[in-house]
Design goal:
The chain is α+β, with helices and mostly antiparallel strands and about 475 residues long. It has 3 domains: about 1-100 and about 120-225, no CATH class; about 240-320, Helix Hairpins (Orthogonal Bundle); about 325-465, 2-Layer Sandwich (Heat Shock Protein 90), CATH 3.30.565.10. It has helices spanning about 5-55, 175-225, 240-290, 300-320, 335-345, 365-385, 425-430, 440-450; strands at about 75, 80-85, 90, 95, 130-145, 145-160, 165-175, 330-335, 350-355, 360-365, 385-395, 400-405, 455-460, 460-465. The strands form 3 sheets. The protein has a 7-stranded antiparallel sheet. Helix 3 (about 240-290) packs antiparallel against helix 4. The longest helix is centred in the middle third of the chain and has 53 residues, at about 175-225. The two termini are about 55 Å apart.
């Protein structure tokens, strides 16, 4: 039962089986009821025919009764005497019947009594020569010619011309009904398994055809996993159904995974390259110091150590960001953070100015946002000619932190590339004082994880947009 095809076939077969069983039972019940109604109607017709003869004055021994094999008829008086009985009818409901059989009347002869229509019955009173409108239906058995069978009986009340009330009970055989119901039931019992086999087979084939592309996707994914070749793609069926969308989504996932792995490989390679230079320089200085202590360049060794420390801190932060670390939900005043950061920066090469500092808070990590501001200021001071200006502007539900310098700016075709990791423009490399090309990449990752964005609006204006808290 581990196969989807098997589960679908079994499920469809069970649903169809339940539906067919319920429908079959309903059909049998309706058919049985219809045939019983027909038998009751036939019995009522026979009973009314005999009752009509009695109402018109036909003597009981002169009644034309139907053949007992087809319609067993018994005429009884109010006191239970059998007045007439069909040919070969020996018993009804296990009681022997014979004309003249039953209790004798002990009362006076009421024939000709004008009040004889008051028979004590709660139903409608009949007058002499009338036949009752209502028929009473019951199922029972009758012995006709020594053979006992089931019948549907209809009982009709009538009064003869002398005012004596009688009950005419006629029956219609239920054997044809039982035979018809049995035939339909047998046909269902034979046809149901065959139909279920057909349903299971068709469901199996249709499901197999529908899942064939899924098996192709699974096989290709297994091959990709075994070969670790993320450039491969799963086959996309021509149909525009769920399987086709699954294949396209799988290929998009593979493309994103390939890009991520390639980015990780480049990151590791670039990190190794960036680490190699300060480590090699520091090792060289230490080896020289061992041989010639007087030639040890202590400031250079300290600078290389600081560069290694900063690079390790950047790599650790990027690793935490890639792992999905969510920033804290504290309130940060951007204007206060700008004042604090600019007051700690002194430089004799460029002038650091502050523009508009709009009031407002954002939700996030103050340490990470301060790191973004510091990286943007480092980048601006590295490329500025004379001044750098930082400002905070309120724009509706957003706060925009802008860092601007009077440097040459970033070329339009490089404004997205500079946010990639370990990317530095050629002139930046020539003037670089130790940066590894991670500052802007870290700044954008932090901005995105705070629900904002970081972009170059003009050649030398970097804008950090964050949603205002509250």
């Amino acid at each position: 039962m581990g196969s989807v095809r098997a589960k679908a076939a079994v499920g469809a077969t069970m649903v169809v089986a339940l539906a067919l069983i319920a429908t079959g039972v309903a059909v049998l019940l309706v058919l049985r009821g219809h045939l019983q109604s027909q038998a009751g109607l036939q019995a009522e017709v026979a009973a009314r025919d005999v009752a009509g003869q009695i109402a018109t004055g036909t003597a009981y021994d002169k009644l034309e009764l139907p053949d007992g094999d087809e319609r067993p008829v018994v005429v009884t008086s109010e006191d239970g005497r059998v007045l007439a009985v069909g040919e070969d009818v020996r018993a009804v409901d296990g009681k022997r019947v014979k004309a003249g059989q039953g209790a004798k009347s002990s009362g006076p002869d009421r024939s000709g009594d004008d009040d004889s229509d008051d028979d004590g019955d709660d139903g409608p009173r009949l007058r002499p020569g009338e036949v009752g409108d209502d028929a009473d239906y019951r199922d029972g058995s009758a012995d006709v010619g020594g053979e006992v069978a089931d019948y549907r009986f209809a009982s009709i009340e009538a009064k003869d011309t002398r005012g004596a009330q009688v009950t005419v009970r006629a029956g219609a055989a239920l054997a044809p009904e039982e035979d018809a119901v049995a035939s339909v039931r047998d046909a269902m019992l034979i046809g149901l398994p065959l139909l279920l086999v057909v349903v299971a087979g068709v469901t199996w084939l249709v499901t197999r055809r529908a899942l064939r592309p899924v098996e192709g996707i699974r096989g290709e994914m297994a091959a990709i996993t075994a070969s670790t070749d993320l450039s491969r793609r799963v086959p996309v069926p021509s149909s525009q159904d769920e399987v086709g969308r699954l294949a396209r989504t799988t290929n998009e996932t593979l493309a994103a995974l390939e890009l991520s792995v390639e980015r990780q490989r480049r990151f590791v390679a670039d990190a190794s390259h960036e680490l190699r230079s300060p480590i090699a320089s520091l090792r060289t200085q230490l080896e020289v110091a061992v041989a010639h202590p007087e030639l040890l360049d202590v400031p250079g060794a300290v600078a290389d150590t600081v560069r290694l420390q900063r690079l390790a801190a950047d790599l650790l932060l990027l690793a935490r960001l890639d792992a999905g670390e969510r920033p804290s939900d504290t309130r940060v005043d951007l204007a206060a953070m700008v004042r604090e950061e600019t007051s700690q920066r002194l430089t004799d090469r460029v002038v650091l100015r502050t523009g508009e500092l709009a009031a407002g808070e954002v939700a996030g990590s103050r340490g990470q946002l301060a790191r973004v501001l510091g990286n943007l200021l480092d980048n601006a001071q590295r490329h500025a000619a004379e001044w750098v200006r930082v400002s905070v502007v309120r724009e509706g539900e957003w706060l925009a932190l802008r860092v601007e310098d009077d440097g040459p700016g970033v070329p339009p075709d490089e404004r997205e590339r500079i946010f990639e990791r370990f990317v530095r423009l050629d002139d930046a490399r020539a003037r670089d004082d130790g940066g590894a090309g991670l500052g802007l990449a870290i700044a954008r990752d932090v901005a995105v994880r705070h629900g904002g964005s970081l972009a170059v609006r003009t050649g030398s204006v970097f804008e950090l947009r964050l949603p205002a808290a509250g």
